Amino acid sequence: MAPLPKTSEEAGYKGIRLKSLPYEITDANFFTEHAIVKQRFATLIDANDYEYNAIIPSASYGIANAANNIDFEAGDEILVLEDQFPSNIYSWRNIADEKKLIIKTVNQPEDFKNRGERWNAALLEAITPKTKVVTLPHVLWTDGTLFDLKAIRQKTREHDALLIIDGTQSIGAYPFSVKEIDPDALICGGYKWLLGPYSLGMAYYGDYFHKGKPIENNWMNRKDSRDFSALVNYTDEYQPKSGRFSVGESSNFVLTPMLIKSLELLIEWTPAAIQGYCKEISIGAVNELRSLGCFIEEDQHRAHHLFGVTPPAGTDMEALKSYFKEENIFVSFRGSAIRISCHLYNTKDDFDKLVACFKKVI
To answer: Whole-model pTM?
Structure first.
């Protein structure tokens, strides 16, 4: 959970004050910021057309919209990764049960040697003519393993398969270009590296989905919804392109302005600069931890804003947790790995304290 930038926090307060004076809310309030947040997200992900974007409440909602609009045939394969986040698993399980599909899991290597390289190679090999969908993160949530989306996209094209990306763990902190990768869908929870509020996220849906049916039917995702006086003239037509997939009440007067401010900061800072800074402040600590016997994925196969540290066997994890608490160090324990998440608010001194804790127990 990322902290809110101060400008986003103030935008939230302003939105609350507006809701306290509902007579000041006009028709324009429903649509102006609704469009702005999609425009800002388009800039961040290097997309030409903001109408390819939708406003979603969660990653699982965005994935469900995709899963329910794919033309499957019995026996088609859905390719996933071992240990990927459950929001990008459950919708696929449901649709697989319903349509007699096969979920094929690409497991991580059993040992650490060249782990990232071997896992990427296994993933590419697993894409075959039977593959209908490859649905995976850019960066694994548990330990920051990086997946080569360019190579994966090329292989999916060879077999006419769709590429669905869960960008929750990467978009905003790691460079990404829709023009370069051309995914069929990109789904992002907003509370992580978009630095936004909880319960609001963004999704990009490519041409494949633009005639699809959303999982939710609300008045705003229908054609001509700007004309309040004509809302009783019910229509079966949706908003163009990806507008059909936005969640009901997506003109949230509190959350939407907050996400706009966060996206504007990220555009100003740039994900490339964030990634570079995180590498700069962490690389010394990474090398020290490796010298202590900890496993950290090779630099070219992991992110720098999020990465896992696996201590050597026999490490007293409870003692390590106690030292972290004493030093006010906040990390996440995910399986056997300790997940480190850093950003512009961190410094090299923070990593020095982190390493000192490890040295006390190893």
So the answer is: 0.96
